[in-house]
Amino acid sequence: METLEFIIYPDGRVQEKVTGIVGASCAEVTAAIEAQLGQVVSQEQTSEYFTQPINQSLDASNQITFSEW
């Protein structure tokens, strides 16, 4: 489940926490929001950021040959 959590402090700072998004794609998800919020002071990547998405593919081919005996 993908979630974005925002904590807004009395001095105007906003802390953003992204969970459930694997890899660097979280930056794509939050780019528009961060542009509207203002200057990004710091970023800290979580372990999910460094996780590589699993891409599995299954290639199966059947070859049927008939021979005349």
End-to-end gap: 59 Å
**Sheet with most strands: strand arrangement:** 1-2
Beta-strand content bin = 15-25%
Helical proportion, percent range:
10-25%
**Rg, Cα atoms, Å:** 23 Å
Query: Order of SSEs, N→C?
Result: EEHH
The SS-based structural class is alpha+beta
Q: Give the integer mean of the pLDDT values.
A: 81
Residue stretches low in confidence (pLDDT < 50, at least 5 long) are none
* Strand segment tally: 2
Basic shape = rod-shaped
Helical region count?
2
The main sheet comes to:
2 strands, antiparallel
Pfam families: DUF2997 (PF11211)
Protein name: DUF2997 domain-containing protein
Organism: Stenomitos frigidus AS-A4
Q: How would you sum up this structure, described in words?
A:
- By secondary structure, this protein is α+β, with helices and mostly antiparallel strands.
- It has a domain at 3-50.
- The protein has 2 helices and 2 strands.
- A hairpin with a 5-residue loop joins β1 and β2.
- The chain is rod-shaped.
- The N and C termini lie far apart (59 Å).
Layout of helices and strands, plus pairs?
Layout: E1 3-8, E2 14-19, H1 25-37, H2 47-50
Antiparallel strand pairs: 1-2
Pfam families: DUF2997
Protein name: DUF2997 domain-containing protein
InterPro entries: DUF2997
Summarize this structure as a short list of keywords or feature phrases:
2 helices, DUF2997 domain-containing protein, DUF2997, alpha+beta, 69 residues, 2 strands, two-stranded antiparallel sheet
Summarize the structure.
The chain is α+β, with helices and mostly antiparallel strands. Helices cover 25% and strands 17% of the residues. It comes from Stenomitos frigidus AS-A4.
